[in-house]
Amino acid sequence: MFTGIVEELGAVVAVENLGDASRFRLRGPVVTEDAKHGDSIAVNGVCLTVVDTADGEFTADVMAETLNRSSLGALAAGSRVNLERPMALGGRLGGHLVQGHVDGTGTILERTPGEHWEIVKIALPAALSRYVVEKGSITVDGVSLTVVDAADDYFTISLIPTTLALTTLGIKKAGDPVNLEVDVLAKYVERLLGRGAGTGADLRDLAEIKEMDR
């Protein structure tokens, strides 16, 4: 699990086409400091497995499913990327629970600079709109953010100077794709309600049981 707090703004060194997959070599001295084969590192919000590391760089294989569902397929040598290691057990949850499993991609529609922040409007795929709510959490290119406004086909986020300076969201422009991961709790609740396991009576019974356990 990740938290959506980007540790490092890294870069793609090379991309090798493997036919039904791609092998990425990325530079990230901070995230590779203690990384080893088999570890996970989130790249623009996508959880990838480390193949090997050397001199502040690491390689990772990206399968076709990931390339098709995320914006990683658009990356090339020189592209900047957000990097984050998994949260250590007992560590602080600075953002929100992030799996690194991208639900889809959005497109930056417009940017509105302010004196101390910037509002970014992002197109929202119809299949994800029901999971995005005002003041809820969403992950954009691996960055944990709070939704400002939510509509059926777009949402807005407010970026502080630190986010603009230390993540790819500071250099993305209108028309650029971004990876989106909605709050996993919303998906679990929907699944439970869809199976009839979350009726009003069930939820009240659960609350009463928890109260008795105290």
UniProtKB/TrEMBL annotation:
Q: Has UniProt tagged this entry with the keyword Repeat?
A: yes
Q: A Gene Ontology MF term for this entry?
A: riboflavin synthase activity
So, what pathway does this thing act in?
A: Cofactor biosynthesis; riboflavin biosynthesis; riboflavin from 2-hydroxy-3-oxobutyl phosphate and 5-amino-6-(D-ribitylamino)uracil: step 2/2
Q: Which PROSITE patterns match?
A: LUMAZINE_BIND
Kindly state which keywords UniProt assigns to this record, in alphabetical order: Repeat, Riboflavin biosynthesis, Transferase
Q: Which GO terms describe its biological process?
A: riboflavin biosynthetic process
Domain named Lumazine-binding: residues: 1-96, 97-193
Reaction(s) the record says it catalyses = 2 6,7-dimethyl-8-(1-D-ribityl)lumazine + H(+) = 5-amino-6-(D-ribitylamino)uracil + riboflavin
Q: Where are the Lumazine-binding repeats?
A: 1-96, 97-193
* Protein EC: 2.5.1.9
Q: Organism's domain of life?
A: Bacteria
* Claim: GTP-binding is one of the keywords in the record: no
Q: Which PANTHER family match?
A: RIBOFLAVIN SYNTHASE, RIBOFLAVIN SYNTHASE ALPHA CHAIN
* Biological role: Catalyzes the dismutation of two molecules of 6,7-dimethyl-8-ribityllumazine, resulting in the formation of riboflavin and 5-amino-6-(D-ribitylamino)uracil.
Instruction: Please give the subunit comment from the record.
Output: Homotrimer.
Name the UniProt record assigns to this protein: Riboflavin synthase
